[in-house]
Task: structure prediction
Amino acid sequence: MVSALPLRVAVLGSGTGTNAEALIEHGLQPGSSYRIVLVVSTRPDAGITDVARRLGVPLCILPPSDWEAALIGALHDNGIAILALAGFMRKISPQVIDSLHGRVVNIHPALLPNHGGKGMYGIHVHRAVIAATEALSGATVHLVTEEYDQGSIIAQASVKVFEDDTPEQLQDRVKHLEHVLYPRALEQYAKRVAIEESGQENR
Result:
């Protein structure tokens, strides 16, 4: 017996919220394996908070201090099975990861393991890709660990890097790719988690 779907998922972000919006909308489709039931942010003025309000998803704003303890509490209180990061720049502690049995996912705007690590976010990633004269870039959905961008890869997709690309142009193409890749990857990952939970219940 597989655990009841859809699984309850929270999105944590502090940016514009475009990936969060893609995840929320996919989760609302009939038959989806997950549903975004909570949006969490450290910034009350972040675009992701507007996305949550517009789409009717409950919103939690974390306090400036002890935000990780507040996050763990919110995840527990809302019965969250998976935490999806979407434009969140802070490092996630082992305590948060352990609270969800390692089920924290992120999307990175490059083809990991290339162009990952500390400081590799946003436009910095695309500048690095162009400087390295890469033929391809893309996006990677991966599990979150204690080290930046080191977790197991769940899914990847690529785009071509053109010789005359600016970092901004490449960023736009990768962002469009993210909006397709992330919901699909989370869909498959949620199904996998449901099977894992069912196996634990049946032991």
